[in-house]
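User: Can you write out an input/output pair for a complex, sequences first and structure second?

Assistant: Here is one pair. Inputs:
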Amino acid sequence: MTQLVEPQACAFENPVEPYLRTERMPHIWCPGCGIGTTVNCFVRAIEQCQIDLDKLSIVSGIGCTGRVAGYLRLDSFHTTHGRAIPFATGLKLANPELKVVVYSGDGDLIAIGGNHFIHAARRNVDLTVICVNNFNYAMTGGQAASTTPIDAVGTTAPYGVVEKPFNLPFLAESCGATYVARWTAFHVRQLTKAMIEAINKKGFSFVEVITPCPTLYERRNRLGSGLDRMQWFKDNSIIKNNTDTRECDIEFQKPIICGRFVDVERPSLLENIHAKLEQIRSGKRR
Amino acid sequence: MVSGKQDGVLTGAFYLDGDHACAEGAIAAGCNFVAGYPITPSTEIVERLAQRFPQAGGTFIQMEDEIASSIAIQGAVWGGAKAMTVSSGPGISLMMEHIGLAAMAEVPCVIVNVQRGGPSTGLPTLPAQADMMQARWGSHGDYEIIALCPNSPQECFDLVIRAFNLSEQYRLPVLFMMDEVVGHMTEKVVIPPRETLTIVPRRYTQLSPAEYLPFRAGPDLVPDIVKAGDGYRFHVTGLTHDERGYPVMNAGCQDGLVRRLVDKVRKNADKIQQFDADQLEGADVVVISYGITSRVTMRSVQEARARGVKVGHLRLIVVWPFPETLIRKLATQVRGLVVPEINLGQMVLEVERCAGGHCKVVPVPHAGGAVHDPALITEAIVEAAR
């Protein structure tokens, strides 16, 4: 029998460990899944942001990415399916000192939670939203989603999807987001930087991360392993900052446009609330 | 909390409708976050709060729907706010999943339901009491909530304060079950000075982050709470969880958690219950009523007494948890229990269950859209006394 190496015998602690609830490991994610990669990037991002981690809250919905909140050693909230954004809105308004990050999947944020997503962007509520897009509902076994490309298959679209998927950067920008970026799980450095920029951005900032789901999406669509998919992301991503988000549609096995697309200034919800209260206090608004 | 100047409670005597009195009661209770979505006949509550909060030191946000409203308040609670949402039938139906979350994650909050006729869009501008079972059982799974039924604008003020107090004490959602008539009737409302009001503070833990377990309960079965930003780095989930708040997917953990969530109400029911008893001693018949129907019942009881019937009146103020022990005892002492309600038989099922065949149980149903004709209740009393 092979002798197992005691964990204490490791010479170095993984640098991300202080930010994780290691007592909850192993995590639930499959080998080759991209969510863990995004969490590594996020941890490095919050480390580099040098924000007070006691004042950072993370809110997730339901699904594979919905489990992110539970693995981060922060004030963390695993809410209901699709409702992370309105929960986070209440949290932020109740205590504006908090930095609030919503971290969830495409099905959660964009399908069942789509209405909350567009309204939060419209309000320009001071939140960072990180959407891990693996093109399907993974927790429930690989159903088609509102992000699945046309002709890709899922268990509820066995002959291929016939609906046009959402273009998330375009959706976010058109509803009012102040920061919009898209990267894949391959682009760890760019993704980390985008997360830093998003966290430091005033108002509603949005980062889409395209990730492999080798157990379901890649397997059913015969796209190979998680590693194959990372190679594909490497070979088929077009980095083009400031691309018009209308051109950011994703088509099945066509190149994916990545980059920072939107970075604008707009008064945030909290700024507008404070300005209104000033008007009321000074008697200009009765 | 985002706030303007702190004028706080409006003390004095006012002429208010129930919706506005409820809004003032919430402010007096220290509520400083309300999320809502317009729906008749509850809208006046959020309209008043939108007007008053900049002075009273609270935040109102009109969300995109009732689903968002019912979870925005829970985010606000974890941010340290005292929070409430307000709605009516269709909106309350949309909130059901989040009533379950508030029960599961033990989030103190108040959900006001100004009841109107249903099902579906039903009678937006007319009264009903047909959401009483939904209040108790509407979300999936086993859980307990507390529900109160005011019967006047004064009680909309007084009892919404108790609703907040109970939510804080037992860490659960409290449903404040008004109805269209109570919400829209205008009467004198006396608001006492703030310092004379009893306000239960949030039960924040005294333990350090190293010692604290978010879901370890004390002898009263209720755990102490923390809020985001205080260094506790705690986790909250709607999944079945252990004392650390971490998900545990097995029958043992489920049993421990769900039993505690239910028992914290069932075993404290005596402390929670509240009712008005009028001449129950020696009565042949007792009418059991709640909300606006109790006002109508007062007339019926007077008429029945004038006709020589020994009739008592038990008005339920806290409807959930149901006063089982009291009803069991009454059932052995009277000939009949009469239960008028503006629905086709909801709380009467609880009365029948507790009466256990010891006496007649006479429902006086009404499909909604108006209050009862008092004569109908009078006849039921006279009939039950025979």
